[in-house]
């Protein structure tokens, strides 16, 4: 089995700090009262957004479309950029220093696609479902919780994307 981009780069640089790009998709229901979230295979609590790390040569838009298909079995297309967030982790769960720059993209189902086709991959995504946005769903890590809040509060009135920088400290 071919290693993914991150595994190939880690094999070269070890645990040294690296910057990775990721993209996640936000799919609302028709009246924007629910959002599609996933139960992740790598976390016992909370939800995550469908998405993942960019492979070399991917655009964020290509990555979101690919990851949505892999994780939820849904065909989507990108509507717009919601925002960019960055998170520095001096020691992730694999013991590596990592900064992740994440691009949030609103998506919609492709013409002819139906949510009845939704099916979790069973590995990265254990379940996927539309979840009410009020009260706020619990996300799998604090950074994702902050991003969810931004998605839900800073994109309704304006098409201006948000930028979230890491807390100093």
UniProtKB/TrEMBL annotation:
InterPro entries named in the record: NUDIX_hydrolase-like_dom_sf, NUDIX_hydrolase_dom
Name this protein carries in UniProt: NUDIX domain-containing protein
PROSITE patterns: NUDIX
SUPFAM superfamilies reported in the protein's UniProt record: Nudix (SSF55811)
Family of the protein in this entry: Belongs to the Nudix hydrolase family.
Annotated Nudix hydrolase domain residues: 18-153
């Amino acid at each position: 089995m071919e290693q993914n981009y991150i595994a190939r780069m880690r094999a070269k640089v070890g645990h040294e700090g690296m910057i990775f790009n990721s993209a996640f998709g936000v799919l609302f229901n028709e009246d924007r009262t629910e959002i599609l979230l996933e139960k992740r295979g790598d976390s016992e609590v909370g939800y995550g957004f469908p998405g993942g790390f960019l492979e070399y040569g991917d655009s964020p838009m290509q990555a979101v479309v690919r990851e949505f298909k892999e994780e939820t079995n849904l065909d989507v297309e990108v509507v717009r950029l919601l925002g960019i967030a960055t998170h520095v982790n001096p020691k992730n769960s694999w013991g590596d220093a990592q900064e992740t720059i994440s691009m949030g993209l609103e998506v919609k189902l492709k013409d002819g696609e139906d949510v009845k086709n939704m099916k979790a991959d069973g590995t990265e995504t254990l379940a996927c479902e539309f979840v009410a946005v009020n009260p706020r769903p619990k996300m799998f890590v604090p950074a994702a919780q902050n991003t969810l809040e931004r998605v839900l509060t800073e994109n309704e009135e304006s098409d201006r994307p948000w930028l979230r920088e890491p807390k100093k400290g």
